């Protein structure tokens, strides 16, 4: 491991590990001596990193807008490229455009060798049989979900029955053949999943269900996992 690579790894460890991070933790993480950790901390400080703490007490990386962006490993870049290209395929128009912009920014800001790898990436994402596009503005639905605002919409289920629903939106799930809204349905007084391509006339009600979204989503996903396990036959 080169010294430059080790310094990047130390920055990553300082961001990831609970602060304050003791020198011995960093030494174990990077497989170096504690003395090397002390020297590398001094080197990072000389390069502009704002690191609070000292030997014996641990270190805390103070986020600073003046710091240069962290470098990426080649595999990390490929993971980002694959994820962003997948979003351009499955995301709503606003999200797909944001993914393309993010990929362009990423390509422009990494070292030339890695920029070449991004421009000629070997990984890609495709949907050869995409689902029907949603009729609602999914960006508005995402905004309402983040704002924890109840929404209403008209819905047609698999049997063709139409209804008007008022729900607390909890999260969106993008799958191979469809995209779903996970929500608490006021009509059914239970969790429900709604296909985006069967929704229409999306409106915000202005009602807030803050701060219940995260625990509600956790409960719903736990139920979905339990139901999935129950469907798996036991061959023991």
Automatic annotation (TrEMBL):
<feature type="domain" description="Helix-turn-helix type 11">
    <location>
        <begin position="6"/>
        <end position="59"/>
    </location>
</feature>
<dbReference type="Pfam" id="PF08279">
    <property type="entry name" value="HTH_11"/>
</dbReference>
<protein>
    <submittedName>
        <fullName>Transcriptional regulator</fullName>
    </submittedName>
</protein>
<dbReference type="InterPro" id="IPR013196">
    <property type="entry name" value="HTH_11"/>
</dbReference>
<dbReference type="InterPro" id="IPR036388">
    <property type="entry name" value="WH-like_DNA-bd_sf"/>
</dbReference>
<dbReference type="InterPro" id="IPR051534">
    <property type="entry name" value="CBASS_pafABC_assoc_protein"/>
</dbReference>
<dbReference type="InterPro" id="IPR036390">
    <property type="entry name" value="WH_DNA-bd_sf"/>
</dbReference>
<feature type="domain" description="WYL">
    <location>
        <begin position="138"/>
        <end position="203"/>
    </location>
</feature>
<dbReference type="Pfam" id="PF13280">
    <property type="entry name" value="WYL"/>
</dbReference>
<dbReference type="InterPro" id="IPR026881">
    <property type="entry name" value="WYL_dom"/>
</dbReference>
């Amino acid at each position: 491991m080169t010294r430059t690579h080790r310094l990047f790894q130390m920055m990553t460890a300082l961001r990831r590990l609970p602060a304050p991070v003791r020198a011995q933790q960093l030494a174990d993480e990077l497989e170096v001596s504690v003395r090397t950790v002390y020297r590398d901390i001094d080197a990072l400080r000389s390069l502009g990193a704002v690191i609070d703490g000292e030997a014996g007490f641990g270190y805390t990386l103070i986020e600073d807008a003046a710091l240069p962006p962290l470098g990426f490993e080649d595999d990390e870049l490929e993971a980002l490229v694959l994820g962003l290209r997948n979003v351009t395929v499955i995301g709503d128009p606003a999200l797909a455009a944001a993914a393309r912009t993010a990929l362009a920014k990423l390509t422009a800001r990494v070292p030339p060798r890695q920029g070449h790898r991004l421009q000629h990436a070997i990984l890609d994402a495709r949907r050869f049989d995409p689902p029907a596009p949603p009729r609602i503005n999914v960006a508005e639905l995402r905004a309402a979900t983040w704002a924890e605002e109840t929404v209403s919409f008209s819905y047609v289920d698999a049997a063709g029955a139409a209804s008007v629903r008022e729900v607390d939106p909890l999260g969106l799930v993008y799958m191979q053949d469809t995209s779903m809204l996970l929500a608490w349905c006021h009509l059914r007084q239970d969790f429900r999943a709604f296909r985006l391509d069967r929704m229409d006339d999306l409106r915000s009600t202005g009602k807030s269900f803050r701060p219940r979204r995260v625990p509600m989503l956790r409960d719903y996903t736990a139920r979905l996992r339990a139901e999935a396990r129950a469907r798996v036959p036991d061959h023991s």
